[in-house]
Amino acid sequence: MKVLVAVTEVTTVDDEFEIDGLAIDDRYLGADMNEWDEYAVEEAVQLAEDGVADEVVTATVGPEEAEETIRQALAKGADRAIRVWDDDCAAADLLDVGAKTALLAGVVAREEPDLVLTGVQSGDAGFMATGVSLAADVGCQWAAVVNDLELSPEEGTADVRRELEGGVEELTTVELPAVLTIQTGINEPRYASLRGIRSAQSKELEHVTPGELGIEPATIEGALRLIGMAEPDVESEATVLEGSAEESAAELAAVLRERGVGVEG
Amino acid sequence: MSAPSPDVLAIAEHRRGDLRDVSDQLVTAGSELAGATGGDLHVAVVSGDVEAFGRKANREGVDVVHTVADGEEFNHDVYVQAVEALVEEVDPRYLLAPNSVNGLDYVPAVARRLALPLVTDVVDIEAEPLVATREMYGGKVETEIEVADDRAVLTIRAGEWPATTDTGDASVEPFELEIDESRVGSSVNGFEEVGGGDVDITEADVLVSVGRGIDDEENLELIHDLADALGATVSASRPIVDAGWLEKGRQVGQSGKVVTPDVYIAVGISGAVQHVAGMKGSETIVAINTDPSAPIMDIADYAIHDDLFEVVPALIEEFE
Amino acid sequence: MAILAAAAGSPTRETFRGISGVEELLFYYLAAVAVVVLAYGVYARFARYAEGVEDPIPRLDDLGERTVEAARIALSNESQFNRDLYGGLMHAFIMWGFLTLLIATTILAVDLEVWQLLLGRNSFWVGDFYLGYQFVVDAMGLLFVVGIGMALYRRYWVRKDRLWGRHTSREDTLFVWVLFALGVGGFVLEGLRILATGYPPFEVVSFVGWGTALAFEAAGVTPDLADSLHWWAWWSHSLLALAFVAWIPYAKPFHMLSSFANVVVRDEHSGARLPGIPADLEATSAESIDDFTWSELLDQDACTKCGRCSSVCPAKAAGRPLDPRDVILDLKGYREQRADDGGEQPIVADGGSSVIDAETMESCLSCLACVDSCPVEIDHLNSFTRLNRQLVDQGDIDPGVQDVFQNVMQDGNTFGNSQRSRADWADSLEFDLTDAREQEVEYLWYVGDYPSYDDRNRKVARSLARIFDAADVSVGILFEEEKYDGNDVRRLGEEFLFLELAGHHVESFEACEFETLVCTDPHSYNTFENEYTEVDFATWADDPMMPFDYDEQWNRDGEIEVLHWTQAVEDLVSEGRLDLAGDELDYTVTYHDPCHLGRYNDEYEAPRELIRATGCELVEMPRNRANSFCCGGGGGGLWMEFDDDPKPSEERLREAIEDTASGVEKFVVACPMCTTMFEDGRKTGGFEEDVEIVDVAELLVEAIDRDAA
């Protein structure tokens, strides 16, 4: 079984930052492997360790700098990696779900994996939609927000648990091939040591352009335009609620109701 | 594709026999949007007890309720087919759905199949032209997204719009649909209450978090009562979890989960570095602790320097 | 032959009294067998060490000097006396008694086999020499038996906790009882002989044997009976002795050789200076027991299970699953079992299938108490670091620590904050700090992560800045070029991250003009002083991922002085540059020795001098200086959460309040990690009313301000 893991490098922002036009000033930005994808990578690597997966390939839409993150996935045990990018991708101010779907669908068409894993969402844009969108595009099954996975390759199915709101899990069986979006907590992601990252230099990391995958520039541009960015209202210093326990509780109740807590909906 | 109608189609959400609260919020967002486009608001309920759901979805501002009777629980393959057919029928300018775990399990597929632009997790909408507000970087910034298309699919975040609870006068229309079973490749086998065992505290809007100050396992009852009264989820700091009083899944902190709820109520938590790392991103932090110099006070927005065993019962009283 | 001497009337006795010629031959045959078995066993043991990987730390240089020093350490029993007078006396009695008996037997053998048999001379074991010999042997033999008695009392009556562990086994029982039987048996034999030979008057020098004879007689043993019993006693004593000799290399008695050897090859800087790693990316750390160095294997065999390390381990005291002795012995047990049945097991992993569990290693605070307390110089931390490195290679890392590693990798500091804001702590100072990158300074001040980013410790950094300012010192900092020092990530096993940080810093240091490197944090001080200087950066020159361009060994000649700030400021105070009268404050305080300043680097007095310079009365906790008890923050403890009961910080504060001269108002620290841990422990342990946590620098600033006011 071949497993493809869609891994994205996310932009991280310092606690204190400044917005410059439609973006956060570069000085306050960092990069990291998307937290949810770490769980997806771990799940794939465990499948390989358990002998279920023969090959784990990662696919990333991202610039050359993202290769640092990709090497982490390789260090953790992925066999090889594919990175999709070109100047058109760099020029788009917002790679929307449609664009990412098309690019990843191009990779899926080439690799023909039996299972695609990716994180529930990215930590930066947080659209939470690429996985399911990808499944619809390539015409396979899917499950979103998976926190437990049992594969039955002989039967061609995957039994998953989907983590619904409010402490309820849905037990679902989907046919393979499928795209599963992986929730944090499904496993304990391992650490990619610097030795491992160095050793991963020898693993294949292929760069392909959208053109090579047959993707039109217009698809990459998409329909969404970022037109504004602002900081939400900031937190204040602690307000001490004084008085007896009853008084302070009453004051707190008012504060909480203001924030919609306990208000019957 | 020709220009769509000015209508708005909103897909209600239900689970295990209940229409979920977010559906009423969806109606509010939908009617605001329909007001701006000058179109009708269509609400659809798919699967389950559609008659009851249809009646319940008939809220003020809703013009038509479509009911699709097929199966009991949510199945994304059924939803994709039903919503696709409804879109064809209604030809809406905007398709709305909750940004819930189930919403995210079919809406992106619908958007992709119909080649519609998708904006998820929307917290505010301006129409004509459509500008959706959504957060980025884990809530550090709010962005405004313009959609350069005359149609769009939007999923809205729960709790951002007030619920519409008044009954409306919509016509309830059964929508006849033959589900193509060959396109159903998934089956829901059941549900499991994880009794908090695997509750995702990262998804909770309100957390009542308990720490060492609770002293004894028996006293946890008090915390559960408070959470019930507030409609909140119970979380904890490490010592409570290590003591086996609560499941690991409820632990907030560096070695537990990082949470960013709207309201975080820290009860009897001193706020060790490792704990703070897991919750400092919460929007409003309330600390109840006898110790005014506990580190939790440094990051709290509201603080009560008093005995939790007096404050918490009083607070429960307030909400009962 | 001996008979001749006896016939001549000079005091002596028969070695083989009542033993026939055939029996004597049998004895020699058995003795030869015993010696062969001993020699083979010893050879096999040392051959196994020789198979071990080469040790990166030089341990066999100046062997002569090392042996002399080891002999001094062993003969003085100084390590056994450390924190344990009873144990020291016990071991000294046994060891000195044993050695004396060994030498005495050797003298006898030389007399019999060489002097008389080979050289055909008359025995020298006669007359005054014989009398002196008998007296010394009886006296030291008595001491030996007393020592063994003390050991038995402690082990079986007191049942001293640390003597009983998971690895306590029959060999421990057998060892102590065999020694007891040998000691007592010798006197029984002697007593029977004296009784049987009618109390030769000169034998009164064998006073214990004489007394034994009298006791036998009083118990009704006739000289004839004694004579016939003597044969039985002689043989059983001899057989037991020969069996013991043969047994030595196969069990606990081997410590007489292995522990001594371990002391010979000891590393004086053990733990403070961890061994490096090979440049080969394929090299493994602890994938198999074959990855261990010969010295680490010898460590395992040197262990006598005395449990001193376990008894001082703060992680064990907090209820964590670490027992330093068990780790060493588990490794030994696995090695021996694998040699027997070939069964392979992972050395360290998460989940219980391995020799050592990951959580055991996560528990370690790298406080060096185990290493310090070990009487036989076991380098626990070297083995632990090897295991930690293996965990890193496997990716089995605690999520909290993973975050820290990521933060350091991506941001340059453990907090994951922006490097840009690294010097923000100084914003509220009334003076500007010099940028050492732009201006020559006397002191380059490495501020450190916690003083730069943690609010509580920022106050300490500002206090120190004010002290430097008050003393009018030329000092500068590196601003955002200063990153995390790497000391603790190295101890957690992420060696490459340490190397990246070390390379970055030495490159930065080289680009600045300064004389002395001063550190706020003892952890930084330790790694700069002991470890940065050991890295041969040329090894990594070809590594394209190393983010520095430096290929030498930094500060090899010690041209740059590296100091903890208390050492630097102590100099300033003694030069009178801080203008303290010495009566500014009158608090009663106690001082907590940080592991990395005290045990790691033997600096106990500088902080104490500074405290006294403020006028404070300094009272000592029971565990002070080298016996200090870790705050719980070392070895990554600061970044992990444990279900401690009590937390090390709580236990230490309790000691300061309950076990120390009453009225301790302030608990003085000299390490940012300690500050953080104790501020936390003070709250969680409920000590807020009792004591305040202050850094030495804060105390000094208070004194300076008192003067200014």
Automatic annotation (TrEMBL), chain A:
**Residue ranges constituting the Electron transfer flavoprotein alpha/beta-subunit N-terminal domain according to the UniProt record:** 21-217
Pfam families of this UniProt entry? Answer: ETF
Keyword field: Electron transport, Transport
- Origin superkingdom: Archaea
Alphabetized InterPro entries for the sequence: ETF_a/b_N, ETF_b, ETF_beta_N, Rossmann-like_a/b/a_fold
What SMART domains is this protein classified in?
A: ETF
Family to which this protein belongs: Belongs to the ETF beta-subunit/FixA family.
Name of the protein described by the UniProt record = Electron transfer flavoprotein subunit beta/FixA family protein
From TrEMBL, chain B:
Enumerate the Pfam families for this protein.
ETF (PF01012), ETF_alpha (PF00766)
Q: Which residues form a coiled coil?
A: none
Q: Which positions fall inside the Electron transfer flavoprotein alpha/beta-subunit N-terminal domain?
A: 8-188
Instruction: List the InterPro entries.
Output: DHS-like_NAD/FAD-binding_dom (IPR029035), ETF_a/b_N (IPR014730), ETF_a/FixB (IPR001308), ETF_alpha_N (IPR033947), ETF_asu_C (IPR014731), Rossmann-like_a/b/a_fold (IPR014729)
Question: SMART domains, alphabetically?
Answer: ETF
Q: Which family does it belong to?
A: Belongs to the ETF alpha-subunit/FixB family.
Q: What is this protein called?
A: Electron transfer flavoprotein subunit alpha/FixB family protein
Natural source organism: Saliphagus infecundisoli
From TrEMBL, chain C:
Source taxon at top rank? Archaea
What is a GO molecular function of this protein?
oxidoreductase activity
Q: Which Pfam families match?
A: CCG, Fer4_9
**Per UniProt, which keywords does this protein have?**
4Fe-4S, Iron, Iron-sulfur, Membrane, Metal-binding, Oxidoreductase, Transmembrane, Transmembrane helix
| Family annotation (InterPro entries) | 4Fe4S_Fe-S-bd, 4Fe4S_Fe_S_CS, Cys_rich_dom, HdrC_iron-sulfur_subunit, Helical_ferredxn, NarG-like_sf
Presence of keyword 4Fe-4S: yes
Q: Which SUPFAM superfamilies match?
A: alpha-helical ferredoxin, Respiratory nitrate reductase 1 gamma chain
User: Quick one: signal sequence residues?
Assistant: none
Could you list the residue ranges that cross the membrane? 26-43, 89-110, 130-153, 174-196, 231-250
In this protein, which residues make up the domain named 4Fe-4S ferredoxin-type?
294-323, 352-384
Q: Give the family this protein belongs to, as stated in its UniProt record.
A: Belongs to the HdrC family.
Q: What is this protein's record name?
A: Heterodisulfide reductase-related iron-sulfur binding cluster
* Classification lineage: Archaea, Methanobacteriati, Methanobacteriota, Stenosarchaea group, Halobacteria
